[in-house]
Structure formats: C-alpha cells, structure tokens
Automatic annotation (TrEMBL):
Annotated EC: 2.4.2.8
Protein's pathway: Purine metabolism; IMP biosynthesis via salvage pathway; IMP from hypoxanthine: step 1/1; Purine metabolism; GMP biosynthesis via salvage pathway; GMP from guanine: step 1/1
Family: Belongs to the purine/pyrimidine phosphoribosyltransferase family.
EC class of the enzyme, as a word: transferase
Protein's name in the database: Hypoxanthine phosphoribosyltransferase
Localization of this protein: Cytoplasm
Biological processes annotated in GO: GMP salvage; guanine salvage; hypoxanthine metabolic process; IMP salvage; purine ribonucleoside salvage
GO molecular function, one term: nucleotide binding
Length: 180
C-alpha cells in the first residue's frame, strides 16, 4: 500500500475539500465583480485532483484547459521551464486563472505568467493548493493559496515523487528510506 510509505500527514482530505469550498467562493466573487469569463488552466500533472475539486464548486461561467511545463526532476530543480504540452484555447485577450499544485522556488509561475502576458492574456491570476514560502527564489505570490507548508518535500493530492503518490487523497511527507 502506498499509504505505508507516508511518515506523516500534513493536510487531510477533509481539510482540502473544505478549503476548496472557501477558495471557490473567493474566486467566484472576484470574477463576478470583474464580469469576465476566465480560462482556467491547470498545470499538468500535479494540479489535476485540486483542479477537479475546485472547479466543481464554481457557479460562474469559465472555460477549462491544461498545459504541461517542467522544471523539476526528483527533488531538485534542474533549470528553466520547458513547455511540454501547450493549451488548446487561445489565451489572447482572455483572463487566465492558473491552477498549480505548489509554489516552491517560484520559477515555474514567473515563467508561465510571463508567457501568458506574451500571448496577450488580459489578466493572469494564480490559485495554488500549496505554498512553500521558505523556498522562494523568484518574486511571485499566488492570488489564492490553499495551505502554507513547511520546507519539506511533500507528496499526494497530485504531487509526486518520481511520478508516484499523486493518487494519495491527502498531503504528506514520505519516510526517509523511500529516498534511499
Ligand atoms: P517551483 O520551484 O518552480 O515553484 O516549483 C515547480 C514544481 O516543482 C511544482 O509545481 C511542483 O510540481 C514541484 N515541487 C516543488 N516543491 C515540491 C514538493 O514539495 N513536492 C513535490 N512533489 N513537488 C514539488
Ligand atoms: Mg506543478
Ligand atoms: Mg513533480
């Protein structure tokens, strides 16, 4: 069982679900005020469970798309962001709501936000399930954050270690022997 590899749980499934209700209300209020129809863009693959939990609470009109960028291999950052899969809907003259699993160094979101501005997006907001502010190297903050986590490598609810553990329904820390 993958559950057996977990040292401790940081955020439970119930806490995530409850937080998604709150985030969806905040986000909805902001887009209703602006009167715009955003393209909600999930960054694959980590954002998938969070995006699913969040968007089913939205009662305002929006469009959904995905893109895949990569900047990480294992537990260490390996350099600039690369686009592996681009979105299908045009971002030109559209407000964008980026959905991310975690803001760590901030490199990914700085680059992706810049890219959306270059594509002619009118506005780029970010919602991230997790924020790890102790690790920040690039100046960026998500507009909406689910939970702030300590400086530890976390898995679950979309977040992987070598592509595993994304299916865990909570956020946790792996036992040290898993990395050995
Ligand atoms: P950045 O450093 O660019 O902010 O983060 C890039 C990506 O690294 C995140 O979207 C996430 O996929 C991955 N990442 C950062 N911190 C963690 C972590 O603690 N656990 C896992 N599983 N992935 C992380
Ligand atoms: Mg990610
Ligand atoms: Mg990863």
């Amino acid at each position: 069982m993958v559950q057996d590899d977990i040292l401790k749980v940081l955020v439970t499934e119930e806490e995530i679900e409850q937080r998604c209700v709150e985030l969806a209300e905040q986000i909805e209020a902001d887009y209703q005020k602006e009167g715009t129809v955003p393209v909600v863009v999930g960054l694959l693959k980590g954002s998938v469970p969070f995006m699913a939990e969040l968007i089913k609470r939205f009662k305002f009109p929006c469009e959904i798309d995905f893109m895949k960028v990569s900047s990480y291999d294992g537990t260490e950052s390996i350099g600039d962001v690369r686009i592996d899969l681009d979105m299908q809907i045009s971002a030109k003259e559209r407000p964008i709501l980026l959905v991310e699993d975690i803001v760590d160094t901030g490199r990914t979101l700085v680059e992706v936000k810049k890219m959306f501005k270059n594509k002619g997006a009118t506005d780029v907001k970010i919602v991230s399930l997790l924020d790890k502010p102790d690790r920040r190297e690039f100046e960026i903050e998500a507009d909406y954050v689910g939970f702030t986590v300590p400086n530890e490598f976390v898995v679950g609810y979309g977040l992987d270690y070598n592509q595993k553990y994304r299916n865990l329904p909570f956020i946790g820390v792996l036992k040290p022997e898993i990395y050995e």
